[in-house]
Design a protein that fits this description.
By secondary structure, the chain is of the alpha+beta class. It contains 14 helices and 6 strands. It has helices at residues 14-31, 106-116, 120-133, 137-153, 157-170, 206-216, 223-236, 239-254, 262-272, 281-293, 297-304, 306-309, 315-331, 335-345, and strands at 2-7, 53-57, 66-76, 79-84, 88-93, 97-103. Strands 1-6-2-3-4-5 form a 6-stranded antiparallel sheet. A hairpin with a 2-residue loop joins strand 3 and strand 4. Helix 2 runs antiparallel to helix 3 and helix 9 packs antiparallel against helix 10 (281-293). The chain starts with a strand and ends with a helix.
């Protein structure tokens, strides 16, 4: 079965879409209280059933997309290798890919459906079985990424880290590093975030080093060692990994709120615009929290709603982002939107 897999690139309309959702929530709350639907439609049944894979591409700055069909031979680093009919090989940059469609096993497809329904426990064994029977190495890595997402949602943080390490063994520059169980909110209870030791900062695994630094960054005694590890990773890594390292360093500023400046936060926002859509949840959360601290409540709400509305992370972090967004809406005087999000989204955290 061929189904749509994911959206890679970040649309220039994403932030506008969040603002539009706020407007719609306000209108619906005023005229149809309690009637906002929080559902995710799956249009895979409307897709054609060709025997080839498909990627939908949009070049930087272009308004139109084009669909390229063929057989995906590999997805690694920042590129997709697609063999088209006639034996022509295209190497497409992931940043230009809007949508990816490829053949999936029934078990993999069902596992993804369970993820969409937030049925994490039943999704996990389906994904593990699908990976064990999948002959294409690049598809195995895609299944592992979904497995890591599921493990993170279940609070299996160490297992999630191990799964991503397995991906990085085959694909060191994989975009799936975004699924690492990083700590984005030090306010969460210890049970709701990964717990690693200072020794992990010297691990042979860059992924473990990054997770350890994120977990220890708010500890005043261990913060210098965590920052040093992040600075070293920033110099040696690239792509999505480097972006995550950079934005983890932003968290230091949240721990020093008196030193935050609007110009610095604006610079972060400009950087985030160039990130892959999936990568932006954590950075937008940091940006939103920083905007809250300087009392820019409208823009804070927009950034803080990125995660709960567009790209959820683990449930506790997503719930924290939503709670901060509601606070920002209330502080800006937009109590109607705040109440609507509280009623409609809180049960689905």
């Amino acid at each position: 079965m061929m189904v749509r897999h994911s959206v890679f690139s970040s649309s220039p309309f994403d932030r506008a879409a969040i603002q539009l959702l706020l407007i719609v929530a306000s209108i619906v709350a005023a005229f149809f209280p309690g009637q906002v639907a929080n559902s995710q439609s799956d249009d895979s049944s409307a897709l054609p059933m060709p025997s080839t894979d498909q990627i939908v591409v949009r070049k930087d700055g272009a308004t139109r997309t084009r669909t390229v069909s063929g057989t995906i031979e590999d997805i690694s680093g920042q590129t997709i290798v697609l063999r088209r009919p006639g034996n022509t090989v295209d190497v497409v940059k992931l940043r230009d890919v809007v949508t990816l469609r490829f053949q999936k096993s029934a078990g993999y497809d069902e596992g993804l459906r369970r993820i969409r329904e937030r049925d994490w426990k039943s999704a996990l064994p389906l994904l593990k079985a699908a990976a064990a029977s999948e002959p294409r190495k690049w598809v195995v890595r895609e299944i592992y990424a979904s497995t890591a997402e599921t493990q993170r949602a279940l609070g299996q943080f160490e297992e999630c880290l191990t799964t991503i390490e397995n991906i990085l063994t085959d694909d060191p520059d994989s975009r799936h590093v975004v699924e690492l169980p990083l700590v984005w909110d030090e306010r969460l209870s210890p049970q709701q975030r990964i717990a690693l030791k200072v020794e992990d900062l010297n691990s042979r695994s860059p992924a473990r080093q990054l997770c350890a630094a994120s977990a220890l960054l708010h500890d005043q005694e261990l913060q210098p060692a965590a920052v040093a590890a992040l600075q070293a990773l920033k110099q040696t890594r690239r792509g999505v990994f480097q972006q995550l390292v950079e934005t983890q360093l932003w968290r230091i500023r949240l721990l020093q709120p008196d030193a935050l400046r609007e110009a610095e936060i604006n610079q972060w926002s400009q950087q985030a615009k160039f990130f892959d859509r999936r990568t932006r949840s954590g950075p937008e959360f940091i940006i939103g929290r920083a905007l809250l601290q300087i009392h820019d409540y409208d823009n804070a709400a927009t950034s803080l709603l990125w995660m709960p509305l567009l790209e959820p992370l683990d449930p506790p972090t997503t719930a924290a982002s939503l709670a901060d967004a509601i606070t920002a809406l209330e502080m800006s005087g937009r109590t109607m939107e705040a109440d609507q999000f509280r009623r409609e989204l809180s049960p689905n955290r």
